[in-house]
Amino acid sequence: MALVVQKYGGSSVADAACVKRVAQRIVATKKAGYDVVVVVSAMGDTTDELIDLAKQISPLPPGRELDMLLTAGERISMAVLAMAIANLGHEARSFTGSQAGVITDGSHGRARIIDVTPGRIRSALDEGSICIVAGFQGVSQNSKDITTLGRGGSDTTAVALAAALDADVCEIYTDVDGVFTADPRIVKTARKIPRISYEEMLEMAACGAKILHLRCVEYARRYTIPIHVRSSFSHNEGTWVVASTDSTDSTEGTAMENAIISGVAHDRSEAKITVVGVPDKVGEAATIFTILSDAEINLDMIVQNVSAAATGRTDISFTLPATDGQVAMTALNKVKERIGFESLRYDDRIGKVSLIGAGMRSHPGVTAKFFSAIADAGVNIEMISTSEIRISVVVDGDDVDNAVGAAHRAFDLDSDQVEAVVYGGTGR
């Protein structure tokens, strides 16, 4: 019997009515002849509310206890969903991440999955049950403590379970009908992308597209798990994330067109730090980035200016998650005298706008067209970064919407009619 793993986000199970609707969809899948494993997020904004509660109690809650608190949200979702399915006359069993065999490292708040041993899930499936698994959580391999995978971790849980169970497909249900050429909350005329490669989806996720979690796509690519992104509020065909979009897709058996540009992504969650007046000597940049690495800070874009001949000094700018901004500033200020730089500048009012498409490899002129569109919109570019299938620029935070819209229009990505419908979710 074919196996389907389904993941439902917080907006899909936001209240009792939503839970009942999701239960009906799950039961319909079971009646269609599939074994079904379901991964659920916490209901609505529960995770945010629990974080707010923790901050009211303690400004720096212990990571172990915060994880214990946050995993309560998914436990509520899995239990009420199992009840709703039982009410429809079908056997459903709920499992926490640890009960489902999701084994992680011991890093609280951002644990990584080491292994999945779904013995209890397989046994329940063999007995004809629908399995409901709490997303976003696992158990530490060493300490046996409960851990969380970080925001968006339920996507990763779903794909990891799909790989471990050798599922035919992993369906990610959300509050939009698939992956669009831009955020439909900004570009109303964004088009739905029928097929997109893992490679392009990885770039979009890394550049701020929140439709799929980056680690989820990495996992899917590693184990070649087809992902179907679709809405839990409609029965429309969604977006297939597959190995390649220039060959025959085994899921549908049809040839797929490889567009030059897949979409435009944006990210407002980053900040920029400029280290001013760094001595232009061998090893100084290495020292700066080693300090940041030791502080476990992930950097994104890096630019070093040409050294000024008169002073023998240069400026180094880089972007990083805004949540790590203060940690980075503190770490660098501690070694200011040792390195000998003049000062630090911090700016968290920036945004990153990225153009993504595997087709740009073989089409010259994409970069010029992108920069011209940004310029024509009156937007100044502060930093530039590229890969083989992506061009990213940093702009002022207030200019992000204009830049996204301009790039979207320049590459004829607008739809003739409004396809993008946001069915639910508060965007918190």
The separation of the N and C termini measures 39 Å
Alpha plus pi helix count: 12
Strand count, sense and closure of the main sheet? 8 strands, mixed
Number of strands: 20
Strand fraction band? 15-25%
Summed over residues and divided by their number, the pLDDT gives a mean of 91
Task: Tell me the quaternary state.
Answer: single chain
* Percentage of residues in helical conformation: 25-40%
Q: What's the overall geometry?
A: globular
Radius of gyration: 23 Å
| Helix-strand makeup class | alpha/beta
* Low-confidence segments: 247-257
What's the arrangement of strands in the largest beta sheet? 3-6-2-1-9-11-12-10
Short description:
The chain is α/β, with parallel strands linked by helices and 428 residues long. The chain is built from 12 helices and 20 strands.
Structural notes for this entry:
The chain is of the alpha/beta class and 428 residues long. 32% of the residues lie in helices and 24% in strands. It is built from twelve helices and 20 strands. The strands form four sheets. Strands 3-6-2-1-9-11-12-10 form an eight-stranded mixed β-sheet, sandwiched between helices. A hairpin with a 7-residue loop joins strand 11 and strand 12. 44% of the residues are buried.
